[in-house]
Structure formats: C-alpha cells, structure tokens
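[Solved] Which block belongs to which protein?

Original post:
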Amino acid sequence: MREDAGVSDEVDERITTPLVDEAVKKAAVCWVSVGGGPAYALWCLPLDGALLVVSGPGEQSAPGLADAATAEVTLRGDHGGRIVTWPARVSRLRPGTEEWDTAAPLVATKRLNAPGTAADLVGRWAAEGCAVNRLALGGTPVAGTDLPAESLAEPPRAAPVVRATRKPFRLHKVRRR
C-alpha cells in the first residue's frame, strides 16, 4: 500500500466490466475450459462478481479445474447464445478458511437434489476433497462483434455412458411377405 495516497498497489479482483458483471449475475450454467481443452458445462453460483463452481467426488466433473490457476469461461445470454467469453483467475477455497466458511454454505443451499442438509453437504465436500473454486475476471473479455461468426459446434466426445443399441423386443414373430 502506498502511504502517500492510501491506495493499494494490488489489483482488486472484484472489478469487472458491466457486460461480464450482468452475465455473471444471471448465470446458472457456465462453460469452462482449462488449458485449451474442451469446455465443460458446469453448474455455478454467482457471488460478489465471480462464479463459484463445485467439482469432485459425488459432484460435477471439471477435469483440471481444481488445480488450475486460469481458465476460460463462456456465458450465455437471455436468447440462449453465447454473449461473452473471458479469461478467469481460478482460486480454490480451502476448508477452514474465512472464504470457505462464507461461501461453501451459500453454494450448498443452492445445490439441487443434494442428500441431507446444507451443513452435511459442506462437511462432505471438506471430507472428500471436493473443490470449491472461485472464477473471477482475469483479463479482457471477448464479446459482441469480437465473437466468432461461424459455429463452434464440435462432434460429441466419446463417453462411457454410451452403449450399443439392441434390437427391439418382439412379443410375436413378425412374418415377412
């Protein structure tokens, strides 16, 4: 801190642009890409101009996010299409810290279909090593005419849940003519 002006030399991580701030306020789902990898749709909770994302055992899968320092976040608008993509600084909230004690219960109360109470859920996250990450604006967002005009759709990724289809069950023998 500079003594002459009483101004901190550190950057306030809660400063955002109006577009990012509005998109974050309305966000329920964000697409997060870590290290240039594929983007994953993740449930999120807006808090103080940033997004909180939970991942780990028993929660959503976000490969690489728990240990990442940066990520790329894409948010959609009211029309369902992408309106802004921004680089994010990722900080993991650790159990026992003041940030954890403030944010984790808020995230737990908004978690849908969770077994038990919010306090039980926060305790499970701490015990099982789930990551509660804070995604804050970390650079210049890309929005409006700067967004790509072409489709960025990709073919579906291979997943273990895909299974081969079987022939349908027939109760009676079907005769061919």
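(Second protein starts here: sequence line, then its structure tokens.)
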Amino acid sequence: MSIPTSTGAVRADLNISLDGFATTTDQTPENPMGKDWFRLVAAYAATRTFRARVLGETSGAGTTGVDDAYAEAYFAEVGAEIMGAGMFGLHDNPDDPDWRGWWGDEPPFRVPVFVLTHSPRASIEMAGGTTFHFLTATPDEALAQAHAAAAGKDVRIGGGATVVREFLTAGLIDRLHVAIAPILLGRGIRLWDDLRGLESGYEVTAETAPSGTIHLTFHRDH
C-alpha cells in the first residue's frame, strides 16, 4: 500500500490532571479502573458525543457546549489510529491468543488501529469498521503505515501517555489537545516529563469549559 501524496495531520488528545498526570494508580482487582480514572475523564464521559459514540446511547442525553465540542472533534476526520499495547488492553491477557481487547465487540474507533507491541499477533477485525493490527515499530515506521491506511485523513495517536510522549519527542504530532481536569492525582505517568520547551514549536490556545476543564491545544501546520 502506498502512502498518498497528501497526508492528514497527526493528532493526539489526552485527559490529564492539574499536576500533569495522564494515568491513575488506584486500581484494584475489585475495581480495575479505579475511582481516580472516572474523576479524570468525568467531563468527557458526560458529553453527548461520548455517550453516543462510546456507550452506544441513542437517547441524545449528555452534556453539550465546550466539552462536547472537543469530544466531537476527537472523532472527526480520523482515518487511522495508533495506540500502545496498554490502551488496547493487551497487558491484561498477554498470553491469551483469543484476547480481543477491552473495547467490546464494536470499538468506537471505526478505522484501522495500529497497536504497538513487542509481541505481534494476527490482526483482529471487529464490528463497526475497526481492525486492530499489531506491530513492533518505531514511531516513524508506525506512522508511515497509519498514513497509508488513513488515505489522506488524519492519524490519531490515541495513547497512552508514554506513547504520545514518544511521538512528541520525535516531533511527529501536529496537534496536541489536552483536557486538564480540575483534580490533583499526585502520582502516575506524567505527560510533560522531558518535554521542556515543547510550546516553542506550536501555536498554543486555551479554552475553559463550565465543567472547570481547561482545553489546551498545541497546533502547527503539518
């Protein structure tokens, strides 16, 4: 498959805390998500777009306004996605060849998804247009495959924070949106580590939603 002469932008969206953490650490076997995760993504998960796209709700319920506009933009014009093995859920069942991730039978991505892993496996085709491909690759190599699959649309670097930071360090992300939740976590994986001066290469804008979430966007022409 050849890469189109015109490729879309490379984007990333993350929810982080006021102290910069994009992951939580309070998970238990009884509560594998932890209470802090729901605090971190509360504004996003309450939006009408999230409830329709991720939860499959058809009632039209959910918040609108600033948070929903960013949630809607998250899914718009994406032709392929790149994520780490942790975001897929591969680490939960690393030795189970039948494990199909924790996104359900019809994941919300609806595009080819490239999962970065040290243990490649056969691709998995899911309902709704999502196909998971597993590869061991550098950010540049993964991005070349994703651009080819995206056919001119944008490529989203889905996460987690470590994967996004690797692509930022390599200078490969054109648009970074972080939704800063008004909470303190105190520990976890911090997005901004080793990215001193990142802002100098981008135009930076900020918008605050009624939820208290600050939407910070780093943007440059790709």
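Accepted answer:
You had them paired correctly. Confirming on the second one: The longest helix spans residues 139-150.
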